[in-house]
Design a protein that fits this description.
Elements (H helix, E strand, L loop, with lengths): L1 E3 L3 H18 L6 E5 L7 H9 L7 H11 L3 E4 L8 H20 L6
């Protein structure tokens, strides 16, 4: 599940809109929360535009707190523009999926 670091509103939509939908249609699937556009956190123009609306870029700690709040398996940030963290996003998603699959396999079922 993704949100944009330059859009605090997109982070607010995570628990209110996206988490319930994902949990409904994909129950028992681990969620990796991803903060996109990491490069814009320190972009002067982005910061100025957000300040006009009395906002600021989403801080790492806010993203991590949201991941904890929604019960995400992990939290990571990336920038497609600079390629920072992109590979790690896919690695983390793969690890989360494989860990969930492994847990599911060792379950006992009584008939």
């Amino acid at each position: 599940m993704c949100f944009s670091i330059d859009s605090p509103d997109s982070l607010e939509n995570i628990p209110e809109k996206w988490t319930p939908e994902v949990r409904h249609f994909c129950p028992n699937v681990p969620i990796v929360l991803v903060g996109n556009k990491k490069d814009l956190r320190s972009d002067a123009q982005t910061v100025r535009e957000l300040q006009k609306m009395k906002q600021e870029p989403v801080k790492y700690e806010q993203g991590k707190a949201m991941a904890d709040q929604i019960g995400a398996a992990s939290y990571i940030e990336c920038s497609a523009k600079t390629k920072d963290g992109v590979r790690e996003v896919f690695e983390m998603a793969t690890r989360a999926a494989l860990a969930a699959k492994k847990k599911k396999k060792h379950r006992c079922v009584m008939l």
